[in-house]
Amino acid sequence: MSSKGGGTALTRRNYRLASDTDKPKATGIVNEKLLSDYLHHVFPSTKQGPALASLRKPLGFQELGAHLERLLSEGEPTEDTRDQLIEGRLGPQTVVLDHTSGFEGLLFVDDDLLGVIGHSNFSSIRATTCVYKGKWAYEVLISSQGLMQIGWCTLNCRFNQEEGVGDTPDSYAYDGNRVRKWNVTTTNYGKSWAAGDIVSCLIDLDEGTITFCLNGQSLGTAFTNIKMGPGIAYFPAISLSFKESVAFNFGSRPLRYLFSYLPLQNPPTADLLKAQKLLGYIKTVLSTSIDTQEERLVEKDCASWRLHGEPTVLITLAHIFNHFAPLMCKVYLVEDVLMSFLLGILEGGGSVDEHPLIQQLLDLFWLLMEDYEVNECLKQLMMSLLRAYRFSPIIPDLGFQIHYLRLTTAILRHEKSRKYLLSNKFTFDVLRSVVFFYIKTPLRVKEAGLEELIPTTWWPTRFDKEGKDERDPKDETADERLRRRAYERGCQRLKKRIEVVEELQVQILRLLLNNKDKGTGEASRYIFLNKFRKFLQENASNRGQHPTALCPPEYMVCFLHRLITAVRTYWDDGKRKSPGSVNSEEAYVPPQLFYNGKVDYFDLQRLGGLLSHLKKTLKDDLASKANIIIDPAEIQATSMDDLDEDEESGAAQRPFGAAAMGGALARPSWLSSPTLGRANRFLSTAAVSLMTPRRPLAPPEKVKVRTLAVEQRTEEDIEGSHGNDGLLLGRPLEEPDQPIAEKSLLEIVDGIVMMYNLSVHQQLGKMVVVSDDVHEYAVALKDTEEKIARCPARRPDILEELQKSQKVFAEKLNHLSRRLAWINATIYSKVIYNLVLESQPMLDVYWLLRVCIRTIEHADNTGSLFAFAPEFYLNVAMNAYSALKNYFSPANSMEELPGYEETLTQLAAILAKHFADPRIVGTDIKDSLMQALASYVCYPQSLRAVERIPEEQRVAMMRNLLAPYEQRPWAQTNWILVRLWRGCGFGYRYTRLPHLLKTKPEDANLPSLQKPCPSLLLQRHMAELLSMDKDMAASFLNSVLNQLNWAFSEFIGMIQEIQQAAERPERNFVDTRQLKVCATCFDLSVSLLRVLEMTVTLVPEIFLDWSRPSAELLLRRLAQLLNQVLNRVTAERNLFDRVVNLRLPGLESVDHYPILVAVTGILVRILVDGERQGISRAASVLLSDPFVGPLGPTVAASIPSAPGTMAPADRKHFSLHAYTDYISEEEERKVERMLAFLTEESKQAAASTPTSEEDLCPICYAHSISAIFKPCSHKSCKACINQHLMNNKDCFFCKATITGVEDYSKPAGS
């Protein structure tokens, strides 16, 4: 490696360090005296005092090697000293986790044997080294905050899947999840830990005590009088549950927090001393210049040092690096010496650009160190920075985080270093570097200094009767206003400090996305892009297989926001340079990316199904529309590759589970080694070629396109060149021929959309929990204060308990409001955007929504090729809208977003068109579209957006909604129609059911709890369609009546079972799932009745105009179902009454009001509001139904005939007069008219001559025989045979196929 003596040459980099006699003076080497003075200044001897400086020997480059060796050997510890340092410890010098015999359960262990993830119920593992005397310490870096027990154990401890460290007599543990200490028994101890904390485990075997510290703060002595003596030695140990992860530091790196305890692993004292000496020599070189004119040495500020190629300086540094470079390959020295030195350079403040010394030093590293040495040094330096950033404690000014991010930025500004770190497989992949873009939320407000930063807390104090926060500033008291404003000022102070961190994070991403640094090879952006795609693949492919390999969603949220900011900056820079391209506000992903095979979508689902299937079925469309030809032989090869890959994946995973049982260890951790996932193969294309459109008559000319693995792609494969469109190969004719942006940015935007779909949306929902907690505690505090005000003076005991509760709620609110301030500052904070205050993260999600909308619109224009689009674009469009509506309020409002109404209308058009799009085949995505549309029509603003889409699309949407309910998920369709009607029906203007108002308020954001907002426009479209298309109207209503019959019958059957279970003498419980299904059937029955009411109101002729083919049949079926409902719900002491009076949890929605009011609405419409002929027909059919019984009395039992009529005292009837807030006076009058009319009609029907039994229909025995079947001549009434023929063509009696039905009238002489 190097010359140890005073030779004249060094083998490192073949530098030839020649003597003065070998080299002419013109080379730049200074004269001997000045050189000697310079070298003595840089390398002063510790044995020579200042008085002897004039007597020292001349020093030249020939003697420098031996002189430097002598200096470095001074102060090295002797062998005896080394032996003394390890007294009291047994085991190897290098301390790691014992993966061969010291574990129980299944664990994933890092390749450095210091990190571990639990992969079974409760796994345990210990270290390889134990201690029996002295004071020792080690640190545990908490990566997840779940159930773990960390501490010490002896070799005698035997663990299993239920008992771990602390559960046996000779083991002691601290559990920060449950905040307890364990040694067979357990007691409260310490504080709760969080991901990013550091636990220090200290054992004093002189005093017999064990202590734990959290982030450097002692939690107190946990255990005293621990067992000691001959044969007793303690190992570091941990037990952890499934998916929990930690990393140990036994001393291989400097311990973060220093105590008067020794690390288990000895620090490299000799190497540390050498490194510090050599670094001192380097600092002297940097701060000393040689004035050759005056032949003297000049002191200067080392910050201004530049690498100018001066031979004297370079040869001097080469001698230093001869010893310094090998030391910089050791992680301990890199973290303790080099990182501290580089951080010290930046301590002066100012921008990173103002400290060019770091760039100069990195140039020096690459010049004077071997490639493998500088590579290892950079790798260890970056990993040390990553750990330091992640595990730094939160302080108010975020000083630690800013410090480490500034150094990371400075290093990444160096082009050669940046490209090495990006291209290195294990160092700076996206999976690790994403840690740099996260700002962790403090769980312990006091330690984070938020009490000083936000001294005044505030929370909402005014709520309406449903528990919603009423935010009217005019109603605030002066004290409330002062508190709110002080709280907002504290939030602003916090936000300004967080913005510094966010800006540094964006700077890092801008460096990684640089595409102009092509001087030393491929530009950084293309290296990053391939790593980014690999990161997405690992997170998409491992979601169900290895959850431990996933990037934590809270990290993904911050990464997404920073990446959007950086990408949009580069996008707009490109727009300024190329005015014809698209602005980032109008960004979208062109549809070519979905089918030309240039971008890997792994095994993610496409809208049209599997990719291999789409290639086979749509190959002609690809050729005609996109000029892309796929070789059939390659399609078959792709299918075979899929099979091979599944086998490889299985083979890779089989040894994976046994990782901790010896052999090669690998943990699929996002913070360590890469995962063993699916093989990184490009599945999205086979052979793709371009057909020249200018010569349509000639056979297509095939131009083979390389199919490359993601990491092998180059700039040319992405951006294209010389007629090669790169990522945009195969532009369809519908796509405009104009530049959009740099093609690499398009793929990154596509990845951002995928990333949001993977986990960001779910995480945004979790962040709202703190806000919900504040609301719940605020309601509880207000309720407690009201009780204190009402508490009688004679009950001081109750008053004392209430005051205790008040204090607890207030303390919790103070804590939560400060935590919420942190979340508001990082997620929901407001920034100036076009003179409007908006949340930057909210704007990011809104931008993502608009990107998805435009992408879907462009893909939709390609016709059948739309099937190639990945499903996640539709998912993100729906989820982003949901997030904007639910997750960012009340801090921000969607209405303030630029272009909000236009965006709502565009999304409405997508939902209206694609919820029944035959090109979409996935069941899950179709259900999601239907649910999104159902939610969309529940809110006034989004419903108005549906009304703003073009009329042709509105009519098509309504036609799809009115398709028959069989063979499709009809419940959501019916819900949509009900929402369009709610607010127009009889007594159908409520938000919550009347009997539920006194119960606990539900989530006010639920679609079902929104105020009625009917759409008269869409109702008109529905009426026109049903009126004009008689066949569609008949099939639609037949399916609605079938489903109503099924839903209500199921409901009655279930409440019979519930009633029987409730009446049994033995104690029993009804299954909650059964109760839920029962309530769902009831809700479906009510909603189907409302759709029937809507249809009867809008298009009464469907039932009452008997010139229409199915009108009479539909009316008879309607009457039959209405009579069944009334008989079941209103009979004396019926089953329905008994179950409703039980008030079982889960059946809250089951009550008389919703179902009886729906039935009454239908009856009023056909018996009161219609024309005379229709009313007569309806009354005749209703009263002739075999299930009717005495209809007038039945309805009268549920609806009083006159206002003020009271039932006898011993009976309680349901009465509309009890719901004056919900039933209008006009509606009451209509009911009274209907009852009077029905009573009169019933009397007349009773007085009429009864029909002979022989003349009645043998099927229903309700109507006279009126039809004869051909060819078998059997007879029935028209209603029975028409209903039967809608579903079956066989005769009731002989099963012969019916070819026709003729009218039948009884002969006169019979």
From TrEMBL:
A single GO molecular function term of this UniProt record: ubiquitin protein ligase activity
Classification via CDD domains: RING-HC_RNF123, SPRY_RNF123
Subcellular location: Cytoplasm
SMART domains: RING, SPRY
E.C. numbers: 2.3.2.27
Secreted among keywords: no
InterPro entries named among the record's database cross-references: B30.2/SPRY, B30.2/SPRY_sf, ConA-like_dom_sf, RNF123/RKP/RSPRY1, SPRY_dom, SPRY_RNF123, TPR_RNF123/RKP, Znf_RING
Ranges of residues in domain B30.2/SPRY: 73-255
Record GO biological process: protein ubiquitination; proteolysis involved in protein catabolic process
GO cellular component terms attached to this protein's record: cytoplasm
Pfam hit, one: TPR_RNF123
Keywords: Cytoplasm, Metal-binding, Methylation, Phosphoprotein, Transferase, Ubl conjugation, Ubl conjugation pathway, Zinc, Zinc-finger
Domain RING-type: 1257-1295
Reactions this protein catalyses: S-ubiquitinyl-[E2 ubiquitin-conjugating enzyme]-L-cysteine + [acceptor protein]-L-lysine = [E2 ubiquitin-conjugating enzyme]-L-cysteine + N(6)-ubiquitinyl-[acceptor protein]-L-lysine
Metabolic or biological pathway: Protein modification; protein ubiquitination
PANTHER family registered for this protein in UniProt: E3 UBIQUITIN-PROTEIN LIGASE RNF123, RING FINGER AND SRY DOMAIN-CONTAINING
SUBUNIT field: Component of the KPC complex composed of RNF123/KPC1 and UBAC1/KPC2. Interacts with UBAC1 and CDKN1B via its N-terminal domain. Interacts with RIGI (via N-terminus) and IFIH1 (via N-terminus).
Protein name: E3 ubiquitin-protein ligase RNF123
Gene: RNF123
